[in-house]
Amino acid sequence: MTSGERQGRTALVTGASAGIGAELARVFAAKGFDLVLTARRAERLTALADELHARNRVRVRTIPADLARPETPATLLEALARDGVTIDVLINNAGYAVPNRYRETSWEAQRDFLQVLVTAPCELIHRLLPGMTERGYGRILNVASVAGLMPGAASHTLYGGAKAMLIKMSQSLHSEQKGTGVHVTALCPGFTHSEFHDVTGTREEMRRMPKLMWLSAERVAREGHDAVMKNQAVCIPGAQYKAITALARLLPLGAGHHVAELRSRILAKRR
User: Fold this and answer.
1) What domain range includes position 100?
2) Which helix (H) or strand (E) holds 162?
3) Which CATH number do you get for residue 55?
4) Is 241 a catalytic residue?
5) Model confidence pTM above 0.85
6) Which of 96, 102, 137, 159 is the catalytic position?
7) By the 8 A CB rule, do 79 and 63 touch?
8) Digitized pLDDT (tens) for each residue of the chain, 271 residues in all
9) How far apart (Å, rounded) are the C-alpha atoms in residues 152 and 64?
10) Domain total in the chain
């Protein structure tokens, strides 16, 4: 499908104010998609919308919203429906992590985390999928993580589990939607240059990671776009992460868990 044929289609990007979300918005805008951008930081959204409209001459709407509020997915889509906006592409990118051990965090922090990373994406998909299926066209890109393919380790306790759920859900939907014109992909990046580690307070720890382990947000976004257009169920950017996740699948469950624990202890000693 050419850029011209994509004119008139609209992509909704959550968590679009920075990082992978902003780069995904840039990739889809360059391909001719109109955009709806949502995140909490209104000024960031406005600046990105101005950039994308000037560069690509696409329509860009911004809707500042907090997906931690349970009512946000419904009110967001209801507002778009009232304005006659049809969503053809859904990019579930909004996310963050809650650092520290589970017992040291508040339930409210974990509850909001689950709302943003699990419940909101599920609700947005559930509300948009029937229309996509009826129209015979849809693209759903769920930004997960290699953490969802690895054994769990200490700290950020629910993060790997939440991302694993997105991956499994994406695979199931990918199978369910075959032949309907709706593509579903889980994008599973590893360490990516963005504001993610500043938000979680782990920037100093991450600076000790080898340069080989880092990906650019631009690369991740480009590979995610290409994967969902090709209807690839799971996309793992970077040969290093393809190798790591393949090895993790080969290790016995207990051995993989011990390796994850060892990595956590080594990083903790370096702090």
Assistant:
1) 3-270
2) helix 159-176
3) 3.40.50.720
4) no
5) yes
6) 159
7) yes
8) 444 445 689 999 999 999 999 999 999 999 999 999 999 999 999 999 999 999 999 999 999 999 999 999 999 999 999 999 999 999 999 999 999 999 999 999 999 999 999 999 999 999 999 999 999 999 999 999 999 999 888 899 999 999 999 999 999 999 999 999 999 999 999 999 865 544 444 445 445 566 778 899 999 999 999 999 999 999 999 999 999 999 888 866 665 454 555 445 433 443 3
9) 33
10) 1
